[in-house]
Amino acid sequence: MAQKVVVEPRLNVFFEKQGLEGCFLVLNPVTDTLHVYNPERAKQGFLPASTFKIPMALMGLDTGAVKDVEEVIPYGGTKEWLKDWERDMNLKEAMKLSNVAIFHQVAKRVGMVRIKSYLSSFDYGNQQTGDDIGRRFWLEGPLEISALQQVEFLRRLSDRKIPLKKETLPAVRELTIYDNILGAAIYAKTGWSGSTGQQVGWWVGWVEVEGLNYPFALNAKIPTLEDAKKRIPAALDCLKALGIWSGKEG
């Protein structure tokens, strides 16, 4: 990780502004400094929830289990939390809608043996999946990851330090683009697990500026759908305060 860690209590104002309890961290590759708000929480493992769609997309595309981002994937006929998830779609739409059913089908195609191998090469969280591919282990456990581990995974990923086929990362960048303003781009994914007692919400990704990558992670206690809307504005405010992002308002 970084050679230097700077605790940033001043970022508390952005969590208070949104009424959130959580943590934020970002790695500045220019100064090799990790900026952290609430370092104790940043070390704590949580369910990755839908942030796991980043590594799951990597696995699906890298193995060829999914041909490309345009391949339409049958959703499997399952009853889902959102009615809009109960239909076939490609990875581009599934990532945009955070469709659990589609990514569960991707997991089944990849298979547990290969998933475990990739989690090891990614050094992703606690790497614990159980053995039942029918379970959504990223939403129910035992898989957990801390905000610190998210940033380290995203650092290695964005800097191409993870062994993947050359076309895999560009495809996942296409899936996760959030914004691109004046040459600065954000690639990111939200996550929310409100049904297991953890009530954790995430926004994780990286800012790319002039060929440099600034991986970041926010997690917070998110008990309601209204609270879930506050994750991105809080993170953008933190990135702006640290001089990393100057795009749209948070």
From TrEMBL:
EC primary class: hydrolase
Keywords attached to this entry: Antibiotic resistance, Hydrolase, Signal
Record's signal peptide: none
Residues in Penicillin-binding protein transpeptidase domain copies: 42-229
Database matches in SUPFAM superfamilies: beta-lactamase/transpeptidase-like (SSF56601)
InterPro entries reported in the protein's UniProt record: Beta-lactam/transpept-like, Beta-lactam_class-D_AS, PCN-bd_Tpept
Reactions performed catalytically: a beta-lactam + H2O = a substituted beta-amino acid
Family indicated by similarity: Belongs to the class-D beta-lactamase family.
Protein known as: Beta-lactamase
Species in which this protein is naturally found: Prosthecobacter algae
